[in-house]
Amino acid sequence: MVSGRVLGLMCATALLASCLAPLAAGEGEQDDYEMFVTVDETKVSIISGNLTVAVTLDWPRMVFWHSVDPFSPTFDIGFPKLYLFNDTDGDGRFCRSEAGFTVYLDSNHVEWNVSSVSTGVASELGDYVEFSMSTQADAFNSTIDAPPSVESWANITFWFRLAENDTSYENPAGRHCVTGKTEMLVNMTLEVTNRTDFQDMAVERYLQGGGTTNMFQVLEDGPEGNVSAVLSGRDDESLDGDEFTRPLNGTASSIQSIRLAKDDGTVQAFYHWGSTATGTSVGEPSEIVVNSSCYTDGAGLVLHSALPLSNGTVAFSLDSSLGIVESGFAGKITDWLKEHVYAVMAAVAAAAVLLSAVSYLVLRSRRNKSERPADEELNKSP
Questions:
Q1: Residue 273 pLDDT > 90, yes or no?
Q2: Which of 369, 358, 348 is nearest to 2 (CA)?
Q3: DSSP string across 251-296
Q4: Residue 61: strand pairing partners
């Protein structure tokens, strides 16, 4: 006689086999891509196939990971502040010793206005999500908690777009492609409304990987170029002084790149930014060369891109993007089931047989114990 527990397990085995059999036969291979968006008081969250990204609303920061891989680390890329500075050493790049005024982008210093989140389907984009965050920012000197040195220094807007299809974008250096489904476009536009005597501006970004993904591969000549440096997020180069920074050489590519990798070199995520920006001076658009530099601080990587404020330039538009590299992950759980469907079925069936045998032995042992007292009474002497 088979117990109810064993019978239930055997039925579950049959049900699992009937569900997995079509997968083993090659059915269910259609494109199952879907995009989901949720909005709350703190963030806009988007699930785009294997990419999940949350854009925080207290400052421009993207937290993202692989949607399905259970071992995916969490990646973090944010825009915490801008600097106004004069290039005292003449190298065209920013280092901390040159900082004059600071423009903080967190909600303690600015109030972000978030647009409605637009979703839909377009012929070039496929499914897409886009929205913006905008603010009017002040400039502060180095004194903590001091009032702003320059009120209403600039209007700043960040645009975010995530689309199903590969999409081409252009800056003055050329065109570049943003990969569909797994790469988000981030565009920063800035309009100076209250000029200062500082001749340059630096955009700061902070990159951080999770778990063992704390290596940064620097590609000066775009994502298809060679790796020019491999930096460890565990190293604190900020201890080398305010003059220290790693310059990134100029490039003929339209974008430059930093890849986030594991210790063994497996790349799992990336950040791209334009090697040039579109500037506006007295109503005329112009090409602005972006000179970048970086250093690690023991937890992540600090990236600065310097843009000139001289020659009457009053506005900028700078594209960047971030995403995951799917080949750096184990893949979709459903794919694993398809590849190992028969092994799973065999394991479940074996477990059912084993449990049936154990249940039989337990029931027989209980029956023998229950019959033993009666036998002993019959064998007692009168």
A1: yes
A2: 358
A3: -SSSEEEEEEE-TTS-EEEEEEEESEEEEEETTEEEEEEPEEEEEE
A4: 56, 78
DSSP calls for 215-230: EEEEETT-TTS---EE
Beta bridge partners of residue 335, listed in sequence order: none
**CB-based contact 54:45 (threshold 8 Å):** yes
Cβ-based neighbour number of residue 204 at 10 Å:
18
Structure tokens at 113: 């206005």
Chain-centroid distance of CA 205 in Å reads: 14
Instruction: Note the pLDDT tens digit of each residue in 219-256.
Output: 999 998 999 999 999 999 999 999 999 999 988 899 99
Given pLDDT bands bounded at 50, 70 and 90, which one contains residue 357?
low
- Who contacts 259 (Cβ-Cβ below 8 Å, separation ≥6)? 216, 217, 219, 223, 227, 267, 269, 270, 325
From the number of C-beta atoms within 10 Å of its C-beta (0-12, 13-18, 19+), residue 225 rates as middle
Instruction: Determine the angle formed by the axes of helices 341-378 and 4-24, rounding to 10 degrees.
Output: 170
- Rounded Cα distance between 329 and 37, Å, is 23
Alpha carbon distance 97, 88 (integer Å): 9
Name the token pair of 91: 């190298």
Q: Which CATH architecture has domain 35-331?
A: Distorted Sandwich (2.70)
What single DSSP character describes residue 382? -
Beta strand 255-261 pairing with 215-219: antiparallel
Q: Kindly state the tokens that stand for 197.
A: 């005597």
* pLDDT digits 0-9 by tens, 136-165: 999 999 776 788 999 999 999 999 999 999
Please report, for the chain, the start and end positions of each structural domain, with discontinuous segments joined by +: 35-331
